[in-house]
Every structure is written in C-alpha cells, then in structure tokens.
Amino acid sequence: MLLILTLAICAPRSNTARLRWGIVVGLGCSMVGDFLLMLPHDLFLPGLLAFLAAHVCYLVAFTAECRLPARLGPFLGWGAFGGVILVVLWPKVPAGLHAPVTIYTTVILLMVAQAQGRALKLWTASALVLAIGATLFVLSDTLLALNRFGYPLPASRVLVLTPYFAAQWLIAVSLSVQGPASVGD
After folding, report:
1. 3-class SS of residue 124
2. What is the rounded distance in angstroms from the CA atom of residue 66 to the CA atom of residue 118?
3. Which residues touch 82 (CB under 8 Å, ≥6 apart)?
4. Residue 132 lies in a domain
5. Do 107 and 116 touch, CB atoms closer than 8 A?
6. Please, what's the b/e burial string for 153-182 (b: 16 or more CB within 10 A of its CB; e: otherwise)?
7. Residue 181 lies inside a defined structural domain of this protein
8. Beta bridge partners of 124
9. Could you tell me if residue 185 is inside a domain?
10. Is residue 182 part of a domain?
C-alpha cells in the first residue's frame, strides 16, 4: 500500500486538486485500515471506520468534475445490489454492528456508483480505470463480508486481497492515465 500511495502522490499534476488529494488521503486511510485489521486483536470496527473514511475521501474526490449523482443508473443498480447483500448478511451480522455495516455499505456503494457514473459521463481512460478500481474494491469488500459473517470462502485471503490491491492500484494509477477512452482499434 505504501508503494501504491507513493504512485498516487507522484502522479502528474494534471488532475484537479480535489481528485488528487481525495485519492491520496483515501489511500492513506486505507493503509490505516489495513494496519488495524492486521493486528492480532479484533479491531474490526476501527478498521471499518478507517475504510469508511477512505470511501468518503474517494467519494469527495470523484465529485471533483461531476456532481453527485454523475449518472442515475449506477446508483439504482448498486442500491439494489446493496439491498440484496444486506438481506443476505443481516441475520449473521452481530446486532452491535448493524448500524456501522449499514453506513459502510451505503458509503462504499455511493462511491462505486459515483465512480461508474463519472466514467459514463466523462468517458476518459482515467475515469474508466478509476471506475474499474472502485468496482474491484466493492468485489473485495463483498467477499470479505460474506467470509466474515458466516459464509466461509475457500482461499478467502487470496479472493479478498487480490481484487483489493488491484482496486487500490487502479484508483491510484488513474491519476496518471491520460487520453480519451478507447473501445478498440
């Protein structure tokens, strides 16, 4: 994560300050979340709060060129997805975590919907790379939640961490991608 953060910090300064620093601070909050979740103690809630802060930073960053909602479709789709995931997980989530999990789910889904809506609106390579990264983050967190709350996955660490690190790398590298989106040769 330190290398990914460095990549974002060293990206060309062609982006808006809000986009750039929202991503940099979001990556920093994610590093804090990673640290908290790696400790031998159960620091799930503090880790969740660090990642919540990361997603708020990302959401603010993704509204730099496009107001919220950038496009309505992704918000409707991700809202439906979130509803299904919460219904599946709810019986297995401890009562004390209902509010934090609901808030976290809402914010991460707002983040990915804005990233995808922004990509649809701007249609640049950078926006598309960022949207793919945001989508992979949701995939990672969905797998993590399923595994943590009663639906054990084989090779869960690999299944969760591979899209997580790819997501963070794509979000960071989106700051360096230039040019229009390409749909083929």
Report:
1. strand
2. 6
3. 105, 106, 109
4. yes
5. no
6. eeeeeebbeebbebbbbbbbbbbebeeeee
7. no
8. 180
9. no
10. no
pLDDT at 182: 62
Give the domain extent around 168.
Answer: 2-173
How many angstroms from the chain centroid is the CA of residue 111?
7
Pseudo-torsion of CA 74, 79, 85, 88, nearest 10°?
-140
Give me 136's structure tokens.
Answer: 């992979």
Rounded CA-CA distance 16/14 in Å is 7
Per-residue pLDDT in tens (0 to 9) along the chain, 185 residues: 999 999 999 998 888 999 999 999 999 999 999 999 999 888 999 999 999 999 999 999 999 999 999 999 999 999 999 999 999 999 999 999 999 999 999 999 999 999 999 999 999 999 999 999 999 999 999 999 999 999 999 999 999 999 999 999 999 999 999 877 665 53
Contacts of 78-84 spanning 24+ positions with Cβ under 8 A: 78/109, 78/110, 78/112, 78/113, 78/116, 78/138, 79/109, 79/113, 81/109, 82/106, 82/109
Report the domain count for the chain: 1
> So what's the pLDDT on residue 40?
87
The tokens for 61 are: 């960053």
Say which residues have a Cβ less than 8 Å from residue 52's Cβ, sequence separation at least 6.
Answer: 100, 103, 104, 107
Nearest to 45 by CA among 91, 93, 110, 111: 93
